[in-house]
Amino acid sequence: MTDGIYTLANDAVLDQLIAFLNSVEANAGDYPVAVFAYDDQITQVAAEIDRRPNVTLLADPELFAPWEEFSRQVWETHPTALQKWRAKGIKGVRRLGSNHRYAAFDGAAPFERFIYFDADVVVLNSVEFIFNQLDHHDAVIYDFQFKDPSHILNVDSPYFQTLFTPEQLGTQIFCAGFFASHRGQLPVSERQWLVEQLATGEADILYPDAPNQSLLNYMMLRSHKSIYNFAIHLPQSESTGCAVTSTHFEERERLVFDQGKRLTFLHYIGVGAGIFKRLTEGENLDCPYRETFLAYRFLHHPDQRPQFRGKPQPLHRPPSLFKRISNKLGLKL
Questions:
Q1: How far apart are CA 186 and CA 192, in angstroms?
Q2: pLDDT digit string (tens) for 178-216?
Q3: What are the phi and psi torsion angles at 79 (to 5°)?
Q4: Which helix (H) or strand (E) holds 6?
Q5: Nearest 5°: CA angle at 73, between 72 and 79?
Q6: Which residues, including other chains, have CB under 8 Å from residue 265's CB and lie 6 or more apart?
Q7: How many CB atoms lie within 10 A of CB 264?
Q8: CB 18, CB 95: distance < 8 Å
Q9: Terminal Cα-to-Cα distance of the chain (whole angstroms)
Q10: Which of 39, 241, 268, 296 could bridge across to 120 with cysteines, CB 3.0–4.6 Å?
Q11: Domains along the chain?
C-alpha cells in the first residue's frame, strides 16, 4: 500500500511550498510528497522539486481535465454563481485550479491512501496516526470548522437542515486545507449522481465565495462518506487547534504547542502569499507565528534567513487620518 502526502502550488506560493516541504521532511515521517500544479505558472516550483528526491510534480492537464469538467457541470447548476463571477471578471469557475486537488481520488493518482495539505501549512508532528485511522474510515479530518459552517455552505439555504444529519453538521464539516482519504473515492458514477442532485435545486447549498471547499464538503457529506474528526474524538488532553487565528499557541524550537500539546500542523490560513514573500525578503512584518514559518522556510539555508531589528510592523496598517476623513465623506481617491 502506497501512502503519501499531496499539496497544491504554483510559483506565487513558492515560499510557502518550500517551508511546507521542509516541515514534512523534518517532522512528518518518511512519506513521499506529490505537488499538484495549480496552473501552468510552475517554473520555480519545478526547479525546487527537481532538487528533492522524495517529491514529484503532477502537472499533466489530462489528470485535471475530468475534475475541471465536473466542476463546470456543478457550478452550472447553481442559480447565481457563474453570473456573479462573470460580473467580477472571472471567466468560468472561480479558482478552478484549486479543484486540481480532487485528482487525488483518481485511479491515476500515485497514492492509495493520502493526506492533503494546503501549501500554507507547516507540518509539526508525525502523521502516522492519521494514516492509521484511514484503515477504518473513508476520510479523516482534524478540524473545528463545524463551529462556523457559514464559510463552507450556504447556511441560509433551506437545504442546510434537510440534506445533512445533525451528526454531519456537528462533527464533519471541514476546511479543505487538510483532509485524508483513499484513492478511488468519488468515482465518475458517483460524481454524475451528485451533479444530478445539485440540478434538482440542491446547488443552493453551495457557498460560491469558497467554491473548492464548499463542493468538497458537499461531495463527502451528500454521499455519506464515513468521516472521522480527530477534533471530536481525541480527548481534550490531546486535542489541539491548527490555525494561526488562534493567538495562544507557544513557539518552541521549530515546534508549536497548544497549552503544552504539540500541534500536528499549523495552517497559515488568511495570510496572503505576498506577506510570506515580503517576510522572506526581509520586511519586518508582525505575521502570526512567523518564527516557525521562517525556521522551515530557511531550514536548509539558515544563513539566508532575514535578521529583523526593531518593532515589527502590523500586517494591516490603520488608514491615515486623511483616508478616514475621505471614507467618511464618501470621496473616491
A1: 10
A2: 999 999 999 999 999 999 999 999 999 999 999 999 999
A3: -65, -25
A4: strand 3-9
A5: 95
A6: 117, 121, 122, 123, 124, 125, 142, 178, 242
A7: 20
A8: no
A9: 59
A10: 268
A11: 1-333 (3.90.550.10)
